[in-house]
Amino acid sequence: MPSLGPRSVESRRKADRPRRTAGAWTSSLGAASAREEPVKPSAVSTIDEYILHCPAQMRKRLKELRALIARAAPAAEERISYRMPCFYLDGVLVYFAAHARHIGFYPTPSGISAFRRELAAYECSKGAVQLPLEKALPTALLRKIILFRKSENEAASAARAAKKTPRARHAGSRATGSR
Question: What's the pTM?
Fold first, then answer.
């Protein structure tokens, strides 16, 4: 019986499956099924580069979402984290990402659970909302979620700072010398 070599049958099957890159499906050979160049996540270091590598029809929506987040949290820092655009303000505020048929919006599980009713019209998971490309962005709802996350992060940051401050000694402590 011939040897299968170092790669198992399962690993060969996985290598032959299409893999997903933001905005386009590619085969294991790297041929994109979309007309545009897919995002090369390891090469992207800014949100501008991320958006530039997305399909043209998605760029406008991503720019709109980015501007909405920046207006709601102007002090937030833009980053690329987990190969996705991220806004950071006293911790992760929100992520977003381009997908084949939707834009993923990731306000963490608390952001989803706090607005469960308003998000009922959208496909949601524990920490993600799928914003379909054929629908307009729900800007008022997204703004409320972003402001909620901003206040959550600010409260958590204040709590961390309060823990770091030295505590005042209580009256009647050992320092008074009373027995």
Answer: 0.70
